[in-house]
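Bug #77: duplicate submission created two jobs. Keeping one. Sequence:
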Amino acid sequence: MSRIVIVGGGAAGIELSTLLKKTIRKEDEVILVEPETHHFWKPRLHEIAAGTFDSDLDTVYYFTHGARHGYQHYQASMTDINRENKTIMVCGAVDDIICEVKYDYLIIAVGAVSNDFNTKGAKEHCIFLDSANQARQAWHRMSYVLRAGEEHTINIVGAGATGVELAAELERVSRKLLRYNGTPLKINLIEAADRVLPNSPEKMSRKVQQELEKNNINVLLNTRISEVKEKAMITADGHSLDADVQFWAAGIKAPDWLNGLGRLAYNRINQIEVNMNLTSTVDDHIFALGDCAAIPQPDGSFVPPKAQAANRAAEHLAKSLGDFLHGKPLTNFIFKDSGMVVAVGHYFAVGSFAPGSKMESKFVLHGLLIRRVYDTIFRLHQRTISNMFTVSRLMVAKRLKAVFKPKI
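Kept job's structure:
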């Protein structure tokens, strides 16, 4: 019998926990260590912040999900790794009790957080969207702002997918709420690079920027923030951008608390260095995947921090580790990018083809149909952690619920 301990219940962690029971031996045990009670799909945290996320239908309760899919949920956070004894120390999320959990194989999938690059005042005066709790706190703040009765200014640093989607969703909500005597918003989307979505094809960046500006979002490119104050951001050239609410959605890094645990090898953004088969470079009983792992590829590049990469790594490791426990060797994870889709509001999205394909530089897909593709990606994640029948019931329930609630 082997005990497999998975730390982190994000997209990779919960998919791996679900899929492993189908591939490992009957006597093997799976434990998921995650401090939250419910699973939220991280690419939709901006919807929680804007108040448009349906928490009744689009979340998963770890305890009952684990009972149904063959894993145990420990509501706790990992605080240390003892590789010699094959144990981790965890701190209970409710009672703060420290206890020891033994493992035969440890899988770390704690994801990533925004990188403030040690910008002065960012931690103190910005809202981050790295967890559901932070997103809920953001909505409490935005809920007040949207009912304040006068125009407020929002600063968002980072025009990657999170920043773009947050800006578009906040603008849409504020516009819709005007019919209920809501408050208009002035939104500044601030990016240090020379275009929005700097890691996407240029045509996609241009289309997204056009749509943002059409919706009266002020896009500030080549603008680096050097300091954040309580009600303003100071740019590198000394200009002040006043705001009532400030978000930081730039950069990524693995959590600071992870770096150094278990004397594993880490890179400069706290990611665990792993081999192509997802084992740690210093301990083959420890695996890492998702945004907290630096996963090399045959061409010398690394797997990008994308939800699709985390999902595919989880699917790969579920099969590879299952085969390994049945006496076969571990296999390498080779990631093939399928392109990207970014939502710009509720009825519009922009998508690109896979990098390196002939279509990538020639065409950009956009419109309502691509927005439905964006929704489908989330439904595929739901299907992986449940089944198609459950997803179909959720979709019907959501349609019925939409008939009776106010249109936002």
